[in-house]
Amino acid sequence: MALNKTTPYVLKDTYKYHDGLGNFFQSETYPGAVPLVNNHPQFPPFGTRSEKISGTSFVGPRHRNLHTYLYRVRPAFFHDEYTPYNHHLETANPSPAKHLTPNSYNWPKFQFALDQDSDWTEQRLLGSNGDPAKKEGVSIWVFNINKDMEPNTAFMSLDGEALIVPSVGALDIQTELGKLLVRQNEFAVIPRGVKYRVTLPEGKPARGITLELYQGHFQLPDMGIIGSTGLAHQRDFQIPVAYFDGQFVEDKNSRDGVVAKAHNGPGWTIIARLNCKLWSAAQETTPFDVTGWQGNLYPYKYDVARFSYLGNLCWDHHDPSLFVILTAPAYGKAPGTAVVDFAAVGPHWEASEDTPWVPWYHRNTMQEFVFPIVNNTDPKFPFNQGRDWAPFGAWLNGSMIPHGENDEEYKHWQEKDTSRPGRLQDDGITAGVIEIESPLRLTDWAYNQAGKNFKNQVSAVFLE
Ligand SMILES: [Fe+2]
User: Where does the chain bind Fe cation (predicted)?
Assistant: First the structure.
């Protein structure tokens, strides 16, 4: 069976995208919605105003400078005071991530109250390191949602850039810069401070992991001797085109003869995450009143099936760096140190003689958080059934915590004929891997339900 070059989705994506991570894009919902030459004209087109989102400090190197200009009907500036949002709930005001032990952890199935409806604003904090107030570290959240966000609400994280990975299900994400459909075996990245709204296509539940990066931005890894192709390629990342929640109406008295009018509805609520807590503020106008944008700071998505795996052609086993899709450099540390790497091990060929096609037993300085991504999209596939389903778990190996195959698995790999190439990961599950530089502390929610010191991690999480 040939490898899928894109995931064969039953749920089709009808949204339009720009292609190419790192490119500078200009996106208009009406010809001329983005002004020529001047970013900040005295009279922006169609009665809009210009608003800039800068994702890096102003004087950083040009190759790291990320910013985008939005042309919108009503600037985001016009909102009421932020006040604590549902701080009596664990999802809005989680217990501090404090548990740090030398143990490995596994979660065969995350514990949720399944009789309780939840939406995007009700994620569970699993763990974190660093401090969002210092822009250092990461947090990992678990979502298990079965309803749309409330009408006229939008979410944003002020803590960091969010990597959103559905394990199963799909998310319809409307951002200020346009719409993305993010299905299992795809992931999305939403920059810090960009507002978005999550609904469920066809009303079906979705479960997965959100990784928030407090420092800097995700980027493609350097390729070194690999050269220019292989792994994740720039052109396979998809960036939304502008979407205006409104219409353009003729107005002979206006400067351009046409004026942009937003569909505001009865008022909006913006829910913001800051220091892992939720806050909310009211505003009269929709955050999705952007008629056009231009820049290189934007949300994007990627289909993991597009990843071009590299590997052995003779013997030995190589480091998981070959599976890295995105990395986030730890500035101020030794060159090449990452705050976090995001990798995925999906269906691929192995051709390594006299070598088990699984890693050696190992202890890494990076911590490894591993979780399943269901790449089989057949609705009848067992793991695509229902909300209370397995596998929906993860494991975490701390820094220098030893791990590897159990005896049964080890013997299986010893008995395998390695004189011919073979396929791995053809069971419908891609392993999502988050390699983390600094120790991850767990919340009570994660710590109290975790299995510890397990010796059978793969079967415990993926096959239960
Ligand atoms: Fe490992």
Answer: 362, 368, 403
368: CA distance to ligand 1 center in Å? 6
Distance 403 CA to ligand 1 centre (A): 6
pLDDT higher than threshold 70 for residue 387: no
What pLDDT shows up at residue 460? Answer: 45
Q: What is the pLDDT of residue 405?
A: 87
Residue 458 has pLDDT above 60, yes or no: no
ω into 391 cis (within 30 of 0): yes
Q: Is 67 annotated as a binding residue?
A: no
Q: What percent of the chain has pLDDT over 90?
A: 85
Asked if residue 403 belongs to a known ligand binding site, the reply is yes
Task: Provide φ and ψ at 264, rounded to 5°.
Answer: -85, -30
233 catalytic? Reply is no
**Which of these is catalytic: 88, 317, 318, 348?**
317
How far is ligand 1, taken at its centre, from the CA of residue 101, in Å? 17
Distance 330 CA to ligand 1 centre (A): 21
